Amino acid sequence: MRIWSLHPRHLDAKGLVACWREALLAQAVLAGRTRGYTRHPQLTRFRAEVDPISAIGAYLGGLADEATARGYRFDRSRIDRDHAAAPALLVTDGQLAYEWSHLLAKLTQRSPEDAARWRDADPSPHPLFRVVAGTIEPWERP
User: Fold this and answer.
1) What is the Cα gyration radius of the chain?
2) Rounded to an integer, what distance in angstroms lies between the CA atom of residue 110 and that of residue 96?
3) Contacts (Cβ under 8 Å, ≥6 apart) of 114
4) Cα distance between residue 60 and residue 82, in whole Å
5) DSSP bridge pairs for 89
6) Which of 27, 78, 104, 128 has its CA 20 to 30 A from that of 58?
7) Cα(118)–Cα(58) distance, rounded to whole angstroms?
8) pLDDT tens, residue by residue, 57-116
9) What residues have CB less than 8 Å from 28, skipping those under 6 apart?
10) Integer Cα distance of 43 and 1 in angstroms
11) What is the reported pTM?
């Protein structure tokens, strides 16, 4: 499971669809509807929120917004609580840099055109996240 802290605009089509599916799975885990992935480290930051379902809903809403901008149709009815007004989650600049490097490596393999387009760009965070100074997040498994 990879729930990117990066803005979904940086993802290629396969990455955006995969992130949508994985975030829906994360939502099911957080809502107690599945027994798998309950200890997945990427869920730590959502579980730390007062309302984890609203936080993952806001995350899914950001993915759906990007999908709409690209002409795709993600089914928003699958979002338990699409709360665009959910409080921002924090992500460190070290985590964002780590994910950026990880994404560029993936794009180089499966979508070289996208890799070339983003290679010299600065990464931006998903709209749900606010960047703070720091190293890779403790829940990350490099």
Assistant:
1) 14
2) 21
3) 12, 107
4) 7
5) 129
6) 104
7) 25
8) 999 999 999 999 999 999 999 999 977 778 899 999 999 999 999 999 999 999 999 999
9) 34
10) 10
11) 0.95
